[in-house]
């Protein structure tokens, strides 16, 4: 224990470490109320509800009311729920807040429930327990060490985890695309043809084309991924390998959450192939990724910092990057000019130009 000048224990910093240490209590409590269906129950009536009213809407005949009340109290202290004492009955009544509106399951376009279930999944938790070993020994990442195979191989064997993972990715796309479409509206005006490289099922490009019908959209991903992608009007699916070539000439390439999966060397390969596929003069790259900032201006900056370690734990070479790192990478990949556009998300838009 550090000692003060008069030999007494210096208590400074203790609360800060405890605050960081026990953040998992918040995560697991969120998971708990999501699994129980509390936010949806609170959303089923237009007025604040007592604990008994909440319980009556949950499918658990043996529900432990005392335990539930303690979780509700804790999360109300964190402003996840609103708790007030009803003047007439003296009972506490609970309601949703701006935060818990993101925990509803019937509001898919603005739900973080799949993200809660992925972040707190036992396989994810096990991976964090192998973080220090992966650093001490190098080689396999925490996820592979904990679960016996890489993230994607594991998903091919574990359907339940694959579903949770896919839903979390889709939820991220829905939430982030809302911000992209709102804050980058004019960015799509001069785009005639756009390719979403690594677009997965094509949801993102489909949303862009729906909002900007003058765009001809292509969804480019691995052949087996596009083979099972749904049909969208004005979106053509093209299968291939982004490390070989991107076989479509376009005014714009959309790259959402691709580069953070790869090492700098691999990213440069992808960027060079994007460069080749773009119109020389008016072509542009629209990257949607985190930009690490050492000084946290908002909670989204903190989330981006956390994501770098999430990538460290789940993938062998994935990482988030600072503006300086993006600048170097883009230059090496043939994009010397760029602009960063902040959006209400832990991801930003990086608009990059070949000349
Ligand atoms: C993390 S996901 C991102 C998907 C989507 N852009 C999004 O934001 O939800 C990465 C995507 O890259 C695709 N991918 C991986 N390797 C690829 C390759 N060599 N060529 C094309 N796509 C690839 C994967 O199939 C997957 O759909």
UniProtKB/TrEMBL annotation:
The keyword Transferase applies. Pfam families: Dimerisation (PF08100), Methyltransf_2 (PF00891). It comes from the Eukaryota. The keyword S-adenosyl-L-methionine applies. Keywords: Methyltransferase, S-adenosyl-L-methionine, Transferase. Residues 128-335 form the O-methyltransferase C-terminal domain. Residues 19-106 form the O-methyltransferase dimerisation domain. SUPFAM superfamilies: S-adenosyl-L-methionine-dependent methyltransferases, Winged helix' DNA-binding domain. InterPro entries: COMT-like (IPR016461), COMT_C (IPR001077), COMT_dimerisation (IPR012967), SAM-dependent_MTases_sf (IPR029063), WH-like_DNA-bd_sf (IPR036388), WH_DNA-bd_sf (IPR036390). PANTHER family: O-METHYLTRANSFERASE. This is Uncharacterized protein. It comes from Hibiscus sabdariffa.
């Amino acid at each position: 224990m550090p000692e003060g000048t008069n030999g007494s224990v210096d208590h400074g910093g203790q609360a800060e470490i405890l605050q960081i240490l026990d953040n998992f209590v918040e995560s697991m409590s969120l998971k708990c109320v999501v699994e129980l269906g509390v936010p949806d129950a609170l959303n089923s009536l237009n007025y604040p509800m007592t604990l008994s009213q909440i319980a009556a809407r949950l499918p658990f005949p043996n529900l432990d009311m005392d335990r539930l009340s303690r979780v509700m109290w804790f999360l109300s202290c964190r402003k996840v729920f609103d708790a007030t004492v009803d003047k007439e009955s003296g009972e506490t009544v609970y309601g949703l807040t701006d935060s818990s509106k993101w925990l509803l399951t019937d509001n898919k376009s603005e739900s973080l429930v799949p993200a809660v279930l992925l972040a707190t999944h036992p396989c994810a938790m096990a991976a964090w327990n192998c973080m220090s070993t992966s650093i001490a020994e190098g080689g396999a990442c925490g996820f592979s060490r904990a679960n016996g195979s890489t993230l994607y191989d594991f998903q091919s064997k574990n359907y339940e985890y694959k579903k949770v993972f896919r839903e979390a990715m889709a939820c991220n796309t829905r939430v982030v695309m809302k911000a992209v479409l709102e804050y980058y509206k004019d960015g799509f005006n001069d785009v005639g043809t756009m390719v979403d490289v690594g677009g997965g099922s094509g949801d993102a490009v489909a949303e862009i084309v729906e909002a900007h019908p003058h765009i001809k959209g292509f969804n480019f991903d691995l052949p087996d991924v596009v083979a099972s992608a749904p049909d969208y009007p004005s979106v053509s699916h093209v299968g291939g390998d982004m490390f070989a070539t991107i076989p479509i000439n376009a005014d714009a390439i959309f790259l959402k959450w691709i580069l953070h999966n790869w090492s700098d060397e691999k990213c440069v390969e992808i960027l060079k192939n994007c460069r080749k596929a773009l119109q020389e003069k008016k072509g542009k790259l629209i990257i949607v990724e985190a930009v690490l900032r050492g000084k946290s201006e908002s909670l989204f900056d903190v989330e981006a910092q956390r994501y770098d370690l999430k990538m460290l734990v789940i993938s062998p070479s994935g990482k988030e990057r600072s503006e300086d790192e993006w600048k170097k990478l883009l230059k090496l990949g043939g994009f010397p000019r760029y602009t960063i556009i902040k959006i209400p998300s832990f991801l930003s838009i990086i608009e990059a130009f070949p000349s």
